[in-house]
Fold:
Amino acid sequence: MDQHYRYYRDVFAERPMPFAFVDLDRFDRNADTVLRRAGRMPVCLASKSIRCAPLLKRLQARSPRFHSILAYSACEAVFLCNQGFDNIIVAYPVWSEARTSGIADMVRAGKTLALMVDCAEHADYLEALGRETQTVIPVCMDVDMSSAYPRLHFGVLRSGITTPAQALALWEHIRGCDHLRLDGVMGYEAQIAGVQDAPPASFLKNQLVRTLKQRSIRELAARRGAVVHALREAGCGLRFVNGGGTGSIESTIAEEVVTEVTVGSGFYSPALFDHYTQFRHEPAAAFAIEIVRQPAPTTYTCQGGGYVASGAAGADKLPRPWLPEGAKLTANEGAGEVQTPIIYAGTEPLSLGAPIFMRHAKAGELCERFNTLLLVSNGEIVDEVNTYRGEGLCFL
Ligand SMILES: Cc1ncc(COP(=O)(O)O)c(C=O)c1O
Structure:
């Protein structure tokens, strides 16, 4: 008997599948774990890893330290402003979207917003928008936080701003723009925050990843410190210095210049966050698919289920069978568009119409597959809330 499986099976008895859900008891504990891991530092919520306004609200109601939001598009930032949120950084550069989203109206209405720049062209484009709309647009400088090792680019390809000299040159350019104000600096160390260092059965690789991470953390702390000091010495009054992600909280908050750490995935804690040495959050979001055929004694084929995560394609981007414990995907079919066979040889009796509970590899992308999230607490469904998709919104 699998008690854990039975808990959710009974909670959702009679619910037509597929559906997605968040276990609020776990979600809230994850929120507290994030706050504890972040020490006293304010936490910026990475909305791309949540994609559900009521759950963003729940986090902000839980602690004033969840004080800002890292959005992923200008339209999303405007949507969030209209929902009553404030203090939002758009984390990725936008071009025509900056013009069409209505972001200048929000700035003029008094919302605290910042758009991302990492080159003079970004600044010039936003300067023209500011001029047209008679608005001073706050911007945030994205500083590259990757490490270049021989034959290995350890990190993501984002900004071209890597040195204090480059940051100062962009700051001089922004200073020359009458309709821009440099409001903050952001650097996202994806290779620390988003790369697991303790997956099972990869002992040597894990050792290598940990060594590279330690080396990269030292390099980045020196780089971020040098960039921020150079900007401050040049007279730039930065309102915030943002860094990190779920997997890097400890090293990001240790940097003296950082004023807020970003966290998103740590609240749902999807499959790609299961194996880190420094922390363990609880799986809090999942989806259920229904067994509709049984082609062999230990094979249970479910309807749908093929919710594969973005990024470099690989088996780690497949959804992971969660409950009953021991359920597995097949190598041949993986998780399919219309059907997903599950191999299960455990003791929990399964029959047609029973659920298999799956976890997405990533956090927010689950919400692009479902209009609502069922919210569970203490053995009951306590609410059903719209995802962005359920609001009829699709930002990217
Ligand atoms: C700019 C930026 N900051 C922070 C994060 C970290 O978010 P999470 O905690 O979901 O890993 C991300 C995720 O991709 C990001 O793009």
